[in-house]
Amino acid sequence: MPREPEYLAIARALRAELLKGRYDAAGEIPGTTAIAERFDVNLKTAGRAVQQLVAERLLIPRRGQRPLVVPPDRRTTVWPMTERYARARVN
């Protein structure tokens, strides 16, 4: 059986911490550098783990800043597509 990609394992660990309330609701999670050091992976793998949590709607992406944690009462909210993703979808 194929092994799970590293970024998914990291995302699973971060997801468990988010759901347990380790990071404040509407607060920031650690940066990709801190995540990469903690899990002993490169920055790209840490970034993919964070993007996985964004895709699962547990984090809100912000350009040039760390993503925000979605408060528990807002986790079912569908956030609008923004910026380049919305433009790409229109084209």
Account of the protein in words:
- The structure is a single chain.
- The protein is mostly helical and 91 residues long.
- It is built from four helices and two strands.
- The chain has a two-stranded antiparallel ribbon.
- Strand 1 and strand 2 form a beta hairpin.
- The model has no long low-confidence stretch (mean pLDDT 83).
Task: List key phrases describing it.
91 residues; mainly alpha; two-stranded antiparallel sheet; 4 helices; 48% helix; 10% strand; globular
Mean pLDDT: 83
Extract low-pLDDT stretches: none
* Beta-strand content estimate: 5-15%
Largest sheet: 2 strands, antiparallel
Shape: globular
Count of DSSP H/I helices? 4
Number of strand elements: 2
Order of helices and strands: HHHEEH
Arrangement of strands in the largest sheet: 1-2
Estimated helix fraction? 40-55%
Structural class: mainly alpha
How far apart, in Å, are the first and last alpha carbons? 40 Å
List the helices and strands and how they pair.
Layout: H1 6-20, H2 32-39, H3 43-55, E1 59-62, E2 65-69, H4 83-90
Antiparallel strand pairs: 1-2
Brief sketch in words of this structure:
This protein is mainly alpha-helical and 91 residues long. It has helices at 6-20, 32-39, 43-55, 83-90; strands spanning 59-62, 65-69.
